Give the backbone structure.
Amino acid sequence: MTHISPALRRLRSEDARAVLDAFDSNPDMARQGEVSNLAEAESYVGNLIKPGSPHEAWAITVDSTLVGLMCVSVDEENRNGWFWYWMTDAARGRGWTAAAAATIAEWALGPRGLERLELGHRVNNPVSGAVARRAGFVQEGTECEKFLVDGQRVDVATYGRLRSDPSPSFEALQMVEA
């Protein structure tokens, strides 16, 4: 059995088709933005990678093909970032999201120079919370009825990770800057 090892590289415009495929892979991806055709995927990617964008967007890849996204939306003035991620349906459940999240968090709080990362997930998505905890995030609270999803109010668990927090134990993914 061959061991598949994902890697991280910067998101690029050529990833638009794979982003569209990711959004098509699971109806829940609609929470990540509006991507239902190639033009919308190109716009989605373009907004994340345009010069001057506050986003540090990393593609999680297998054999150079995007299977997920890790992103830190940076607030330079306060040296913090909103941390968010998604995976294609086929790539879920392999531990890759947690490994990628831990790798990017270490980079953001280290060489990137941020001092605090924050993230939130719907409480009815415990897998996302498990990813956050495995990446060293600590739950800080709950925002009651923050989102309206399919006509129902949903609570959001909020997490933070500080530069001074201990690093989690994990196997880092390879990061390719170019």
